[in-house]
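Many introductory courses stop at the sequence. We go one step further.
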Amino acid sequence: MKCDNCGFENKDSAKFCTKCGAVLNNNEVKPANNTKYIIIALAIVIVVLVGCIGYFAGTMNSGDVQSNDNSAKNASSQSSSSSDDSSSGESAQTQSVSSSQSSSSSESKSWELIGSYSGSGSGSQTISVPAGQIRVELSAYPIKNYATNHLYVTGSNGHSGGVDWGSHSDVETRSDSFSYTSSSSQTFTINYYETVSWQVEFYRYQ
């Protein structure tokens, strides 16, 4: 720090001239020093930013190149595999599709209720049942044990089922079921006698 009064060179940190004792005006130096530090700091920040941008740009380009290489390899591999196994693949695919359709068809089928009939007392009624794989479920509860209480379901195709009670049977609900397959519709007669309640249900596998 140069003294403005006598021209003596003092230390930068001195506030008074060592030679003449005059007050040193060091305000002009500090801004210069601060400006120098600011410029250095900005230069460092710029260098760091440029380095980071270059690094990320290189990484992205490398990733794109690798991705393109992998895509090209996969496409080439798939194309080669497809061309090598075309004949056997078509046969296997046909069998797979056929097996899948068959499996799907069998899995999707279930017993669906197509008719439900119920009542009480004594009487009979006739109904028509469509063709298909049919299952019949029936149950009844008698008024009391007359040894003639019953519920019978008889089809025109000869299939039948039913429940009845003997003279020494318990007065309780009884059930029965039977199944058949027919390519045409069938007529069934429901015959019931002295019942508190009865029910007949027809299911078709579809």
